[in-house]
Amino acid sequence: MAEITEIFVLKMKDPEQADAIRERARTDFTALEGVTSWKTYVTTDPNRPTLFAEIYTFPDHDTAKRVTPKFSERELTKAFLAEIDEVLVGQYFTEHTPTGV
Length: 101
Hints:
The radius of gyration is 14 Å and the shape is flat. It is an alpha+beta fold. The protein contains three helices and four strands. The longest helix is centred in the first third of the chain and has 16 residues, at 15-30.
């Protein structure tokens, strides 16, 4: 099965406050069996709202579906969820490989 990437694009209530909370949540969540990684990207345009992309990877779809619900159940990740102002996008993705090319 293909590796699954779960991507959330977020607006945070207070980005600086969220940083420390995110790092504690990252350490906790990535310790779970089946979580390959959690990376964070931030937008760079000073003239637009700051957005964060939280990117989680899992070895396959079944693992992602099994592990993802645990995010909202764990105390440290609950604390991170409380820092989110708005979720703009949140879905599972896999690498696109066009057929017939």
